[in-house]
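Final report, closing paragraph on structural work. Over the funding period we assembled a curated collection of sequence-structure pairs, and we close with a single example.
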Amino acid sequence: MALKLEECADLDRLFKLCEDNNMNINLEKNAPDHDFNNINNKIKIAVARDAALNLIYPENLEILKKFGAEIVFISLLKDKNLPDDIGGLYLPGGYPECHAKELYENLAMREDILKIIQNGLPVVAEGGGFLYLGQEIKNQDGESYRMTGILPGKAFPVGRPVRFGYAYMTAREDSLLFRAGDRVPVHAFHYWDSTENGSDFEFQKPISKRTWRGGFANANLYAAFSRLYFPGRPEIAERFVQAAKKYKNIE
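Its predicted structure, as stored:
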């Protein structure tokens, strides 16, 4: 493993990144720097955090804050609606399949999310958050429960990791977080799949070069199994915050 790591990784750069405490980290050598010094006009972004959805890189929240986001935590299990004054919604990974019944029973929240996303609220949904936006989730006991219905897929257990690990994701069109041709590293870890995974991104494994399509994206949405690491591409976080401000007519 050590020999393979020396062969495939830029260890000198890795060590340098580990020593850097600055959140303005650019993993690409030629990536542009970002100035956080003149960020004004905060915008609230709701982030789901409860037993159903809770897998999120803390650095993602920190860099959203640096671009002007005020993070407001919500529970899809207990809260009945989204805060009125938010400009964006972040649904991270988690285990919605373990709480499908409770998510289904919270009809008020599901209906509120459906309505506000249909009205143009910017939303980022990764992994479990992606499944929550689908039609339904089947749990390990084979019981299916209705979700928000924003996306067309139905989630079901596979019993093994699906498209597991690291990959490169390339945007096919302009969207909320990406511009056509943007290529970013992503990570996925899930034992559930969907009957409809989307086709708005091209994926490629870095070593085997295996490719596939997946994900949903438009001007107000990013939804896919793949998880993003914002500090590696600060412009992703900036675009999310700017879209949230635009939604609430904040300059």
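The chain has seven helices and 16 strands. Residues 27-31 have pLDDT under 50 and may be disordered. We thank the funder for supporting this effort.
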